[in-house]
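Input record (Table S2, row 549):
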Amino acid sequence: MTIKAQRGQTLRAKGWRQEAILRLLENNLENAEDQANLVVYGALGKAARDWPAYQGIVHALKNLEEDETLIVQSGKPIGVLKTHPDAPIVLLANSNLVGHWSNAADWYKLYDQGLTAWGGLTAGDWQYIGSQGVVQGTYEIFKIIAQKHFQGSLAGRFILTAGLGGMGGSQPLAGYMADAAILVVEVNEAHADKRIASGYLQYKAHSLPEALKLINAARAKKEAISVGLIGNAAEIYQALLDQNITPDIVSDQTAAQDLLYGYIPEGYSLAQAEAERTSDPEKLAAAAGQSIAHEVRSELEFQRRGSIVFDNGNNIRTQAKEFGVTDAFDIPIFTEAFLRDLFVKAIGPFRWIALSGAEADIQLIDDYLLTEFADNELIVDWIKKANQYVPFQGLPARIGWLGHGERTKLALAVNDLVARGKLQAPVAFTRDHLDAGAMAHPNIMTENLKDGSDAIADWPLINAMTMASSKADLVAIHSGGGGYAGYMQSAGVTVVADGTPAAAERLRLAFNNDTSLGLLRYADAGYEASLTEVKERGVRRIDTQQFKQ
Ligand code: NAD
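Output record (nicotinamide-adenine-dinucleotide complex):
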């Protein structure tokens, strides 16, 4: 059986909210890296615990009444509770462990016992839209690097990175869109083929000289190019150093957070890693850790030689440090280095998915943005580029980095378009967990915060409770990060614009409150830009300083 998201106007559930969530679940699997094993992306990020759990969720969603809530615990449906029509229709908690037991060893033990599943950020709560979900973030990073270090342009510049999986597969397209020559090392040829088939990658090479020939030819003409090199990142990075080749920008987006399922050690074939995963997992994990350490040492050497090096959110520095690379954190994290200026203003990765399956629906919303947000340079540049270069995967969807008030403005306008029959079916709105008020991850999102509150996990928990109180349709609390435990806490939210006044109220409350919390979180950490936004946009912040006697 192959799962594909239902398109069109026919409902299988008792209302559009339930049908929408069901289509999003199916869409996650339609876009999955390994549908047979329910793995959506990120090595082990699953849409459901197992197939009976998946069928149980589908059955529940089809039969759910408007005033009921489905409860899902780490990918397994637990029950249906009687709530009320303004309550979320799905509540999920994925991969959370009690603090003291929140470590890789305990997590894998519980996973092997079938008691938990990793939800990733958007896998476990059915918000995945394929590689596009991170394309804009990566594109904005490249643009910011161009402005900061390369006089505003990456034309003729060489980006080296690795990983062509579900999320990493966004890198070649983002690099291409930013006018660079980008080389992505990938150990699994089938994954490179998948990116070529989906339009995210242009060329595939089987040797470093072959890849460099393509890259250098494009650089000489200042033309953009994306090349996937079949090989192991640890080996290729070393080979480039040995040949005294220093890329302009270096990163990595392999699934380095996972030493067993995510990162293939140098010298290993895929089959060898697969076999050792059961025969000698400790040996495999140690070899992966050592390879990661080698790769990160190479990244540090590239940095010394002048490359702009950054960690792209896969916990690679943390793993390297555990395997002896004491200076791994000399490499900055992308959030702090490039995107924090946006997050402090609660500008982050908002998404919308056309439940009709019609590309024309996304096109109409693109057109609306280009007219109504004409003075927002970031979104106009992105929408134009996305329109030209980003192919749809599964249900047509769009990501757009928008801030407080902007998200609600768009969502309400779309709800109105649905009501007036201008769109062929309702549209689901969601955002990445990696967003201003929704994630505590001291090695990614909240690294080096001004007030040192990096590890405080209250914020995403407050976010999830607020979303549930703001009539959102789906709310999730996730944990995980590295070895799937102990590194982060995050919250997810989805609201369906079905054209009704009730949906308008849900969209207004949920998305205003979501970004309000983002602004309040950074204002609390002392960021001036957030304090200004809070004041200018009328967010009601309580400043306890004023009560000092
Ligand atoms: P994935 O499991 O789908 O893909 C990982 C890829 O890395 C696979 O194709 C694998 O074959 C390849 N790989 C493994 N070891 C390799 C090696 N030694 N050399 C070359 N290639 C190797 O994972 P994904 O969904 O692409 O996610 C990758 C990482 O990015 C994860 O750690 C994820 O948590 C992180 N992530 C970051 C962001 C962000 O905002 N920056 C967003 C989502 C995910």
